[in-house]
Amino acid sequence: MSDIKVLFFDVGGVLLTNGWDRVSRRLACETFGIDWDEFQDRHDFVALDFEKGNLTIGEYLERTVFYRERDFSQAEFIAFMKSQSVAMPDSLALTRELASRGDYLLATLNNESRELNDYRIETFGLRDMFSVFLSSSYLGMAKPHKEIYRVAVEITQYRPEQCAFIDDRELNLECADLAGIRPVHFKDVNQLRESLRYLGVAI
């Protein structure tokens, strides 16, 4: 019988497309006629504060886009940002299956700005699957910093070895492993199902 009690899920790249990654940012610059190098330079300065919840989406955009006059509104730009979030249906179906069994505590463990994270939770019905949302913007810390893994485990009140973490990025998984959490590298849903079974997760 598996000792796994908690399944931590990354969101972007596992359950949904990434919320605001380099591809989306470049597409936004092309769509709105923004100089990419200038935008990206500004983004790099404030990205971590944005993800850790220290900047609202409006403050982030004031620093990266609306520091000069534009021929589009902040609302239009935010709508574009939100449009970049797309469901990964097979992953969501597997997660719903796990949630319906009720055998495990399911929690997200992801890096995302507060407003986009709230939007993604609401739009894609993540509350129906997850009991806890451990986002960088709620915790004030981000992966792969070791503290976020320690805090995540402490919140669940289980031992690290009773937790598995599913993510598509190897560095995040390596740091989770160092914290004693069982790492699961997400590549596709079939592989995820087999990896979970290997850990003894009933699915």
From TrEMBL:
<protein>
    <submittedName>
        <fullName>Hydrolase family protein</fullName>
    </submittedName>
</protein>
<dbReference type="InterPro" id="IPR006439">
    <property type="entry name" value="HAD-SF_hydro_IA"/>
</dbReference>
<dbReference type="GO" id="GO:0016787">
    <property type="term" value="F:hydrolase activity"/>
</dbReference>
<dbReference type="InterPro" id="IPR023214">
    <property type="entry name" value="HAD_sf"/>
</dbReference>
<dbReference type="InterPro" id="IPR023198">
    <property type="entry name" value="PGP-like_dom2"/>
</dbReference>
<dbReference type="InterPro" id="IPR036412">
    <property type="entry name" value="HAD-like_sf"/>
</dbReference>
<dbReference type="Pfam" id="PF00702">
    <property type="entry name" value="Hydrolase"/>
</dbReference>
<keyword id="KW-0378">Hydrolase</keyword>
